[in-house]
Amino acid sequence: MNTPADRLVDLLDLEQIEVNIFRGRSPQESLQRVFGGQVAGQALVAAGRTTEGDRPVHSLHAYFLRPGRPGVPIVYQVERVRDGRSFTTRRVTAVQQGRTIFNLTASFHQPEQGAFEHQLPPRIDAPAPETLPTVAEEIKEHLGALPEQWERMARRQPFDIRYVDRLRWTAEEIKDAEPRSAVWMRAVGPLGDDPLVHTCALTYASDMTLLDAVRIPVEPLWGPRGFDMASLDHAMWFHRPFRADEWFLYDQESPIATGGRGLARGRIYDIEGRLLVSVVQEGLFRPHAPRHMGTPAPDA
């Protein structure tokens, strides 16, 4: 595989080992646990592979139960809950080394003509993505060079991420900051024409920056972390067709953080301002002594 986008497509291409059982690779990474977006994306692939393929995913609801171990394969067991006239429901359990680490329920809907449509306009008028610096460029501008750890991560990153607001680096810069964040994203290369691949790739991406909104009023997003952070659950609603290798705007906000948990909501728009996907996630935050540099994809 030549590009990070190629590797992402390969990562989402599960091995079928029984009628309703699939096996996914888990790359050996330097992270302490498997990235949650990877598990969610692979589980959605497993669910989709047990359908006829003519009904797009319209929603998913998932729980992260245990941290997954990098480098160890994950087995996805699919339960065919319902095959109705308009809706198909699948429940997926992800197992690693005999323990359930994740479960997901996905619903697929036969496309139909709605009786009416409406959509609130986007909250922000974001500049064009090509006018914004990449994360690597912002880091280089601030530090003078890209640290080796971030250089390695940038080479593996399957998505181009560009923050609408410049990154904050100091306590003074985050003072009085609202719990909001927005990024432009797209896969760094073509993902092919299978709609399920694009849906699962965007599911992967949806976990990369969503909890940023919780952290923004508390600490700079890049630099030593003051918290152990993990995704607890994740829900998505898919409203319109899309391609994950075309620019999309991910507008994120956190309405509340309390009791060690922070809630984040995201809205994903295409470049024309059409709402494509709605996302909600809750994360766990526990303080620790700073010991490592921030990463672009939070562990789950």
In words, what does this structure look like?
With 300 residues, this protein is α+β, with helices and mostly antiparallel strands. It folds into 2 domains: 1-111, Hotdog Thioesterase (Thiol Ester Dehydrase, Chain A), CATH 3.10.129; 127-288, Thiol Ester Dehydrase, Chain A. Helices cover 20% and strands 35% of the residues. The protein has 7 helices and 12 strands. The protein has a 12-stranded antiparallel sheet. β11 and β12 form a beta hairpin. It starts with a helix and ends in a 13-residue tail after the last strand. Belongs to the C/M/P thioester hydrolase family. Keywords: Hydrolase, Lipid metabolism. GO terms for molecular function: fatty acyl-CoA hydrolase activity. Homotetramer.
What is the domain tally? 2
Largest sheet: 12 strands, antiparallel
SSE order in H/E notation?
HEEHEEEEHHEHEHHEEEE
Amino-to-carboxy terminus distance = 26 Å
Low-confidence stretches: 291-300
CATH topology of the largest domain: Thiol Ester Dehydrase, Chain A
At the fourth level of CATH, the homologous superfamily of the largest domain is: Hotdog Thioesterase
Give the overall pLDDT as a whole number: 90
Query: Architecture of the largest domain in CATH?
Result: Roll
How much of the sequence is in beta strands?
35-45%
Could you give the count of β-strands? 12
Note the overall shape: globular
- What class, by secondary structure content? alpha+beta
Radius of gyration: 19 Å
Q: If strands are numbered along the chain, what order do they take across the biggest sheet?
A: 1-2-4-5-6-3-9-12-11-10-8-7
Number of helices: 7
Catalytic activity: a fatty acyl-CoA + H2O = a fatty acid + CoA + H(+)
Subunit structure: Homotetramer.
Protein name: Acyl-CoA thioesterase 2
InterPro entries: Acyl-CoA_hotdog, Acyl_CoA_thio, HotDog_dom_sf, TesB_ACOT8-like_N, TesB_C
